[in-house]
């Protein structure tokens, strides 16, 4: 499969949608009556959190593909999805802390279940790379990482369901089962931001997949040509080339 | 806590968006580093193929360097 196919179009479309979303956030969505201008962080922080958690779940779904078929391309897909979600997770934590400082006067509130639940999920996934690195055999590494990704992927929605049921202290519940309390302009901006952020995730996922596949194919080619200068495969957290 | 005035809130909002931008830029920079390594390896492979190709083949357009420049010319 060629992951680089239609990558340029996807990248342009994602950049465009994300730019429109941010423009809408600043020039179209009304100022929040309670938080004022600081609430503009919402259009960045929440879509990023949703896509990050969605990416973790997608990584788990790909891992099921590996366990069912044994095809290592699923391991690579799962690895890249989790890797990107971790990067977005860093963004979620940082932007959340900035928003917390501006809104609540504190960088972090340990009593707040939403914040702690996200941190727990993030720290759980932060062990994914060391777990992979600790296993030398590529087959075992792929299988164990897949089991981790499936279990952790199932933990993500359960974790947040528990948080939803818990009583919130300061973190607002904007998105509810009954549709939430957002006015139309804010809702539209938010939806565009989620679409843009999803587009960004898919673009970067395809970009990294294309890069990794190109590296694998190049190494395979060097091996076929009997290249003596090819260094032996180093121990790595990243998946080995599918056999 | 009451809403912050615009001048103070602006710093936090700008900070959050800059963090996002920096994150993407760092990611792209790391990927660019990988791409340049890939390009270097491809160049080495090209050289290895050129060393193996018999000299007569290069005059028939089989020279890898010629192939690369021809491909670049197509773009």
Write the layout of secondary structure elements.
The complex is a heterodimer of chains A (243) and B (75).
Chain A: H1 7-27, H2 42-69, H3 73-104, H4 113-126, H5 128-134, H6 138-165, H7 184-224
Helix pairs in contact in A: 1-7, 2-3, 2-6, 2-7, 3-4, 3-6, 3-7, 4-6, 5-6
Chain B: H1 6-52, H2 55-62, H3 64-74
Descriptive tags:
A: 243 residues; mainly alpha; 7 helices; globular; B: 75 residues; 3 helices; 88% helix
Describe the protein in words.
- The complex is a heterodimer of chains A (243) and B (75).
- Chain A has helices spanning 7-27, 42-69, 73-104, 113-126, 128-134, 138-165, 184-224.
- Chain A is mainly alpha-helical and 243 residues long.
- Chain A has a domain at 42-168 and 185-211.
- In chain A, helix 2 packs antiparallel against helix 3, helix 3 packs antiparallel against helix 4 and helix 3 (73-104) packs antiparallel against helix 7.
- The mean pLDDT of chain A is 88.
- Chain B is mainly α.
- Chain B contains 3 helices and no strands.
- Chain B has helices at 6-52, 55-62, 64-74.
- The radius of gyration of chain B is 25 Å and the shape is rod-shaped.
- At the A-B interface, helix 2, helix 3 and helix 7 of A face helix 1 of B.
* Structural class estimated from helices and strands of chain B: mainly alpha
Q: What sequence of helices (H) and strands (E) makes up the elements of chain A?
A: HHHHHHH
**Computed Rg of chain A:** 20 Å
Helix content of chain A: over 70%
**Straight-line distance between termini of chain A:** 15 Å
Summed up, the helix count of chain A is 7
Mean pLDDT of chain A: 88
Could you tell me which chain pair has the largest interface and how many residues each side has? A-B, 37 and 29 residues
What would the principal axes of the Cα set say about the shape of chain B? Answer: rod-shaped
Task: Tell me, rounded to a whole number, the average pLDDT of chain B.
Answer: 76
* Proportion in β-strands of chain B: under 5%
Task: Tally the beta strands of chain B.
Answer: 0
What global shape of chain A is seen?
globular
Oligomer: heterodimer
Q: Biggest sheet of chain A: strands, sense, closure?
A: none
Poorly predicted runs of 5 or more residues of chain B = none
Largest sheet of chain B: none
Count the E strands of chain A: 0
Radius of gyration of chain B: 25 Å
Strand content of chain A: under 5%
